[in-house]
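As a warm-up, study this chain.
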Amino acid sequence: MNRRFHFISGLPRSGSTLLSAILSQNPRFHASMSGPLGGVVTTLLGELSGRNEYSVFISDEQRRRMLKGLFDNYYGPEYGAEVVFDTNRAWCSKLPQLKQLFPQSKVIACVRHVSWIIDSIEQLVRKNAFQPSSIFNYQTGSTVYARAEGLANGDGMVGYAYNALKEAFYGEDTANLMLLRYETLTSDPARAIAAVYDFLGEPAFAHDINNVHFDASEFDAKAGTPGLHAVRPRVGAIQRGSILPPDVFNRFANDAFWLDPGLNPRGVRVV
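Now compare it with the structure written out below.
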């Protein structure tokens, strides 16, 4: 099948699952929650590197074919869609590789104020008070301060994705990159989806934003975090106060660099 690949990346708790659920209403599209290919590509790149004593027998063209083969084989005949969106936070750190593997592919990076991302994760932790989460390696004795610190550090769920996003945003391969704000997707989904279609160069499709479905309850339960990928049937913004201590919330209040046009030297599209 002459299939096209695009990628959904960006920050956690920022609308990637919601975006995938909406896009998957289009019968020509396949989109879902984060999958394994980002990690497999990272591992294979390492195994094909100089640390492998047989790497002298491996050319860059062979590396390219092997990496591309991962996508072609993972999304086999059982995936009948013409356009596949693979979701993983790692893709923002892999723009040079994606450019060579899929020159026409687009990367949609979902973004949200970091304070509200931390707040959203903390809300899930408290909601599932009797189920330790895989997000924190099932540890049970930490505080909101330790959890926020763990999320925000360079290897954390939020910190890694944030650093990868900045790498993509300020790198040389931004022509096929778009940032989609969580606030836009939830408060004005019609405009957000129209912008996505325009960015992709795809013909418009009549999505039903009042009847969105996605179910990853089994995965979320196994991760000890029920509701992690829950999507409300009706898309809309919900106003509420933060449950974070003010000093934790304010620590990340100025991290939304994408809102400042002066910090966007390459003119990346931000919706």
